[in-house]
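Hey, resending since the last one bounced:
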Amino acid sequence: MFILFTISFFLLFIYGIRYMPEGNNEYVGKQQANAIKGFFILYLTIGHIAGILLACGLYPDGFWNHLDDLLHSAMNSLVVVMFLFFSGFGISENLKTREGNRMVNEAYVRSIPRRRVLNTLVNLGVVVLLYLLCSPLTGCEIEWSKLPLYFIALESAGNSCWYIFVILSCYLVTWVAASIVRDSRSCLVAFHTLLTAAVGVTLYLFKAETDYYWYTTIMSYAFGFVYSQYKAELEDMFSRRWLLSLTLSAVLFVIHYILVWKTFIPRLVSFNLMSIWFVLLFVIMGMKFRVGNKAINWCGAHLFPIYTYQALFYLSLLNIGGNVHSFASWSPFLYALISLLLTLLLAKFYHLWEFRIK
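The structure tokens again:
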């Protein structure tokens, strides 16, 4: 039963959870962030595998399997919003170091194109090259006219790519905003938010309706930036009325979740608002609950290789023997498990070929 994956990931996520009535000072710290990202990258991976099985008509029948499929469908692109939030939060935290009377760390701003953008592009290039070489195994048809687009994550060579393009766009937004606005926190936040929204609108205009996930969560990154800049004020407001804040976030999340499916409200607006309320649920809950353990934290710390390399295994295993005689056709659960384990094994050794541009 595929729902066993979801249950296992949830149990792993809450293993070692601690209730802290006096408050969790590390609620947006690195360990908490890795634990949350770890849960969602595992959940996303199995969701991708289940989606491939459904597309091939190999997803097993049964109440519990259909329930798990329903849960994944209900989550939709929400699985990545915490990735975007913590990226926006983290990059803003690095920016906040003052230099003289400046609001931003100018040395860090200058390093963004190199350490954030180029570093990601180089490692993405290695991913793309491997997928190109393995295309006979994965069964992915390579369009050579789109080769440049593969290397900037605008098109896929079989690998998951849209999130990489969005996060690269967000890094560039931060670089531009922090390069222009240096002395005013409110102006920096406003300009950064507007630029992020402009990227979202551009993707909305140029991507098909079926590719809505390219633009429906991008404002979670901007919200992470906002939360970092106004952390003290927001933290004080939420912590003083913790239960009320949590309840209101849950109610607003449900309302916007319903609005997402209303055709008269563009998903660009409704889904991004829903994403922010979803983020707040985890942030506010984290003020009283500390999560994390070695296993789930490790998964969160290895998000890039798990996200980018996972399809190499589940597509190759699916393609061997064809849909009728493939490994997945006689044991979908075992196929999914082995695909996941091989992805995690690769992530363990990813550091051997990872580029680290400083």
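Strands lie at 18-19, 289-290.

Sorry for the duplicate.
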